[in-house]
From TrEMBL:
It comes from the Bacteria. This is Uncharacterized protein. It comes from Anaeromyxobacter oryzae.
Length: 172
């Protein structure tokens, strides 16, 4: 029996990020929200949620090496189990105050390291009323040797610090 197979899909996620940013900023964001810095209307946000799913499936999921992955969906604060966020070094992070919540990012733990087990949720920006950059990778903390108190919390890590891999179980 061999160990798990890891496939780096970081470039696929970055392509999705760029396509999503461009679609929102250039085509879906309503012109009247630009000057007022207001949130888009419900119709635009509903269209956005549908388009994100299609983009994510077309750019990322169909290229992960498994047909089973195509059923995954981007959902609010729901990690995609097979997309492991890996860190190259210890990095700054914002961790949610409470488990399974993403509204306050002020937990005292403010650094994560390569040994932490993180699962991809989506890209994230604080301000949804302006151009989106998806500056952060949003991930659930599944395990942390150094900080077990943050297991189950949501973390924001700048995209520049992360890689994302698909980890398939050990093969015979």
């Amino acid at each position: 029996m061999t160990g798990p197979t890891r496939t780096d899909v970081t470039q696929l996620l970055l392509r999705y990020r760029e396509a999503a940013r461009h679609l929102w900023n250039c085509f879906l964001r309503e012109p009247e929200t630009f000057a007022a810095a207001t949130l888009a209307g419900d119709d635009a946000r509903d269209d956005w949620e549908e388009l994100k799913q299609v983009l994510f499936r077309a750019i990322v999921l169909r290229n992960t090496g498994s047909a089973d992955h195509a059923a995954a969906r981007l959902r609010w604060l729901t990690p995609i189990d097979f997309l492991h966020v890996t860190l190259r070094v210890e990095v700054p992070a914002m961790v949610s105050r409470k488990k399974d919540q993403g509204s306050y990012w002020d937990h005292p733990v403010d650094r994560l390291d390569p040994d932490d087990d993180l699962r991809f949720i989506d890209f994230y920006d604080f301000d949804e009323s302006r151009h989106r950059d998806f500056q952060y990778c949003q991930a659930e903390i599944r395990n942390s040797q150094q900080h077990p108190e943050v297991i189950g919390h949501i973390a924001l890590v700048e995209v520049q610090y992360v890689n994302v891999v698909v980890e398939d179980p050990a093969s015979p």
